[in-house]
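Researcher: Quick one. two chains, 977 residues in total.
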Amino acid sequence: MELWEYPGWRIAQFVSRRELSVEDVVRSHLGRISCCEPQLRALITPMEDAALERAQRLDADIQAGKELPSPLCGVPVILKDNMCFQGAPTTCGSNMLREWHPPYNASVVEYLEEAGAVILGKANMDEFAMGSSTENSAFGPTSNPRNLALVPGGSSGGSAASVAAGYCPIALGSDTGGSIRQPAAFCGVHGMKPTYGLISRYGLVAFASSLDQIGPFARDLGDIALTLDVLSFKDPRDATSSPRKNGRYLDALERSSLKGLRIGLVKEYEGEKIDPRLEASVVHAARVCQDAGAEIVHVSLKNAISYGLACYYIIAPAEASSNLARYDGVRYGFRAPAETLIEQYCATRREFGSEVQRRILAGTYVLSSGYYDAYYLTAQKMRQRICYEFDQAFHDVDALLMPTTPTLPFAKGAVTSPMEMYLQDVFTLPVNLAGLPAISLYAGMTEEELPLNVQVVGPRWSETTLLGVASMLEIAFGTPPIAKGCDNA
Amino acid sequence: MSLTYTPVIGLEIHVQLLTNTKLFCSCSTDYIGAVPNSNICPVCTGQPGTLPVLNAAAVRLGVRGALALHCTIREATRFHRKNYFYPDLPKAYQISQYDLPLGEKGFLDISVEGAMKRIGITRLHLEEDAGKLVHAASDGRLSGAGESLVDYNRGGVPLAEIVSDPDLGSPEEAREYVSAVRRLVRYLEVSNGDMEAGSLRVDANISLKVSDGRWGNRTEVKNVNSLRSLERAISYEIGRQKELLEKGKEIVQETRHWDDARGVTHSSRSKEDAHDYRYFPEPDIPPLVLSREEIEKIRGNLPELPWERAKRFREAYGLGGEDISNLVEDRQVAAYFEGLLSSGASPERAAKWVQTEVFRVCNDRKISVENFPVPSKLLGELLHKIDAEGLSTTGARDVFECLLEKRCSLQEAFEKTGVASSALEGDALRNLVQTLFQEQAEVVSIIREGKDPKGKKRTFLQGLVMRASRGQAKVEDVERLLEEFLYK
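Model:
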């Protein structure tokens, strides 16, 4: 077994016991990256030199007997390229920020480094996290490591592909409407979007502030829990971050039964267009939970299913239109040469890709006077009803089981209509609207070796319960294997 | 029959709050004279990924101001984003308050020609300031300039916007209202209220109501940088609108720029008046909840307000209108005045000295009362000697000058100037008169011989005595002694 095949928590153990040097760990992963990257294109900025330098520094500290920075000591991590990390550009997959070097570190970067992690690179993504296939990147598409002809999902496609291919045991993504869970499902790894406010957003380049949340990808639930433990802090730099960390997440995996839990299946999803193999994995998952002692009941989420998508595609673009207004060429990033200020604004902002421009325009429209009430305000009211509906459902159940995606991973270039692409997120985005935690789990493979998925959703701050349920499912479905398809043939 | 035109004026006043740090980050607010772009950070320059964190001190100052303006304080408020593009606005939106301001429905009483007038306060809300553009072109236009530079030091500095109801009826009332607001924010130490330096900025909304039932559109006049400019700008705008209405023309609803040098307003950016700011709730800042206890605590810590102090000065010290307004205008002046009283000066004497000697020295030296070289305790003791111990005002002035120059103790000042600390009377005065009679024997004999029918020589003698006593003799004592020595 190669070092790059180990889960993060194992690596941290080896390094802490001085059985491995960080440099060995990092070199092994860098080797894996250089083997697969030509086919995958998962990274925008690989950071070999910086990673090796940090590894050597950590090794020196360990040799010198300085206190070990647990619990991610020596663990390689890859960041989605919308998290600020000094020493490399943070591009957001956009020409607008191609050359932008952030003058500060994101809070999650500080937390990771304090825990001893080594950052190996910055992962590809849909421009400004807008997309579900990582095809909207100004740096070109990423391939799905399970099958190079397919997309890895998005927007955190580079992070998901990195973990699936063995670039790193843990990667961070951001999830605004499904951008962690859908690529996790497509690449056949675990991906978690925590409760809104659990992890600081300071240093995450904003797409839609009220929906964005950082979360981990991993091939092992232990790594998911460990990452949550390392990242969950009340951050004084993010007023929306919460002090409500609920215990040690690693302990949540110790669960041996689901007795006393009620788990819900969503009635309305049964009528939706879902790939039958994904429907089957939800049924399979329900049976696993039942066997572990949980009671399975049916709940209704009528508003979330009927109006969630429309509601999301008003609120998210509205916030994005405001968040992305700062890219005007005045202070940083791309600036188009122009004669007048207005010309400079227009020429500069034409550099956004078409999906970004579409959402900026939609968002500007729904906030405009005369349309605000009809669109934005109505969407906000619907958002409240969806939150209320989830609240009601969670009076009755402790967690919900549903598919992460309606389809299996599709081929590059296959989905061209924006609407069809938006439908990818129909099962994930209501969760963001309500600020809930959810995890997309690897649920085995189809006969064609395509990954299956199942999503577990819980009430706010129920990460402990979610991880407990997930741990029972992981036992049943197994941990995700490393994708072999991208090995240099 | 001639028509009458009644001005209807409402003001929006922005005051910079006296916090050490900016509204949403920990950068210094001390931008005056600072090297451009030295008080900035990733947050206040709107770097991607940064988030605002509300400054609690700014909220407290806002509540303090709103309470003093008799506003109702909302227990739950929130912030909105006001979206527009301009290079001095780093995030391309200003974080401000929109539907739920900190304070609402207050009032401020002002004095107009001796009468009290109540001006409604529509609202007080918090928002962040923008940076400053520096244009390279001489005509100030961005498009013509070779380049434009932006200084973000001011960006993110906390402002309170105080919006009045349209209750002001004349340029004079507007001026009085602005000075009342300025006095108040200074008393509260909410802002230094300096119009020239831009820490208090006024925009005036002006329209005219015509006696035939017409009501002209309003215009908003910007760029008034002093109380005088405010009065002039409003007068000009009233005149301009009146002229148009007299001709039966419409007033264009627009923003107008006051040109102080030419004394006119001119239309500015009329196309951009159609701004759609696309306000929506700021998702990065959770709703701001103020508990009753917090609000009451701030109310309990309000200082004595200008009108409360004026009332007390009138009732406790028996002072009149002009004295009061001069003494109450500045909190430091009032404190100095009361310092004089507490070391024994009488209210009338103290009021007079503050408004003459103290103001004169402050003016000459361009210092504020806060930095006045003579402590109020010393000056108060000196004034007490005038009232209680018969020290002459001339002598007191000599001692005061000495205190100013030498910064010595009161006793040293008396010694240095040779002024006796109390009235010259009894044997000392008797000896002085005696000596003088010997020196002026000729004059004395002329008077005694009755050759001074108009009393000129006698007045001359009296003057000599007063001068020799350095003014410390009481006139009636001197007169009595002269009578005694001449005719006894």
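Chain B touches chain A at residues 42, 45-54, 81, 83, 85, 87, 90-93, 142-143, 148, 150, 276, 278-280, 283-286 (CB under 8 Å).
Researcher: Thanks, that's what I needed.
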